[in-house]
């Protein structure tokens, strides 16, 4: 079983920045990729960004390209999401996701990001 510790959420003004972290521990065998999804009130959970655990491949939703940057620390089994130029529409619960080489997904419990003046 995999456990996640997500941190970095909070309240920020429009145009501000936040950095989310997600540290995985437990029964971690072969990570294929880690990423972030988000779910706004009354909406479905949407893909935000992902990073392959080997190599340099990163993937972003169109809505966050140029503003968000995903990175990783393999030694710490940790993925980060640097979020700049935040907008009110970025308000959501952000979930950390891990995908194994076997295609299994594991999810964190989420951290709330609120962008408001």
Structure description:
- It is a single chain.
- This protein is mainly β.
- 0% of the residues lie in helices and 57% in strands.
- Strands 2, 4, 5, 6, 9, 10 and 11 form a seven-stranded mixed sheet that branches. The protein has a four-stranded antiparallel sheet with strand order 1-3-8-7, with no helix packed on it.
- The N and C termini lie far apart (39 Å).
- The relative contact order is 0.32.
- The mean pLDDT is 95.
Name the features.
about 120 residues; mainly beta; seven-stranded mixed beta sheet; four-stranded antiparallel beta sheet; 11 strands
Indicate the overall shape: globular
In helices, the fraction of residues equals under 10%
In round numbers, the mean pLDDT is 95
Question: Whole-number radius of gyration?
Answer: 14 Å
Low-confidence stretches: none
The counted number of beta strands is: 11
SSE arrangement, N to C: EEEEEEEEEEE
Number of separate helices: 0
Alpha-carbon distance between the termini?
A: 39 Å
β-sheet strand percentage: over 45%
The secondary structure category is mainly beta
Largest sheet: 7 strands, mixed
Write the layout of secondary structure elements.
Elements: E1 2-7, E2 10-12, E3 18-26, E4 31-39, E5 45-52, E6 58-60, E7 68-73, E8 78-83, E9 92-100, E10 105-107, E11 111-115
Parallel strand pairs: 2-11
Antiparallel strand pairs: 1-3, 3-8, 4-5, 4-9, 5-6, 7-8, 9-10, 9-11
């Amino acid at each position: 079983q995999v456990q996640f510790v997500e941190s970095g959420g909070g309240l920020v003004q429009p145009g501000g920045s936040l950095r989310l972290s997600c540290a995985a521990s437990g029964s971690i065998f072969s990570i294929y990729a880690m990423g972030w999804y988000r779910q706004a009130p009354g909406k479905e959970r949407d893909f935000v960004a992902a990073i392959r655990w080997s190599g340099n491949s990163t993937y972003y939703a169109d809505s966050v390209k140029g503003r968000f940057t995903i990175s990783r620390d393999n030694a710490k089994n940790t993925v980060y999401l640097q979020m700049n130029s935040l907008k009110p529409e970025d308000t959501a619960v952000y979930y950390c996701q891990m995908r194994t080489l076997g295609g299994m997904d594991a999810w964190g419990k989420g951290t709330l990001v609120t962008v408001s003046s």
